[in-house]
Fold this sequence. Notes:
The chain contains 4 helices and 6 strands. It is an alpha+beta fold. It folds into 2 domains: 9-27 and 109-185, Topoisomerase I, Chain A, domain 4 (Orthogonal Bundle), CATH 1.10.132; 35-104, Gyrase A, domain 2. A 4-stranded antiparallel beta sheet has the order 3-4-6-5, covered by helices on one side. Strands 1-2 form a two-stranded antiparallel ribbon. The relative contact order is 0.17. Belongs to the RRF family. It comes from Palleronia salina. It is found in: Cytoplasm. InterPro entries: Ribosome_recyc_fac (IPR002661), Ribosome_recyc_fac_dom (IPR023584), RRF_sf (IPR036191). This is Ribosome-recycling factor.
Amino acid sequence: MSDDFMLDTDDLQRRMDGAMANLRSEFGSLRTGRASASMLEPVMVEAYGQATPINQVGTVNVPEPRLVTINVWDKSLVGKVEKAIRESGLGINPQLNGTIIMLPIPELNEERRRDLSKVAGQYAENARVAIRNVRRDGMDQIKKAKADNLSEDDQKFWEAEVQEMTNTYIKKVDEALESKQAEIMQV
């Protein structure tokens, strides 16, 4: 192997780990019939002139398996938080009790489960695309090094390393998707 070229595999791995972390976050926001504080993470509230995450305008709790509560700190934002939840597409009907907003989680029907399973598939495909983009960046670095006198054996070695890393992460995405879809379809 040539001593002058060293592919930064740690950087590629860090970026692929980032794609996996993003996938886990998106999967956490998918409602599976059980209450979870993470399902509110993508919901933004128009507060103080800017879009703000719900957890920055109130305390999010899960007191029961099928109930999420939000204790809004500023009374003037209660209506805005309620509106943001209604318009979020989560399919949850908020109930007001003073500054506390209660979100009872309804049982999922079969059609909604299939829809959520498709959304999970889209999230997984986005993660696969992100991982493939990292692979492409790694391959581009190898091609540039080839132009700068990297031997063909070294090029093949580094390309195999990048492809093996990519295959490992794509497999992780597929496993996470399979697990999430099984969780969604569980009655």
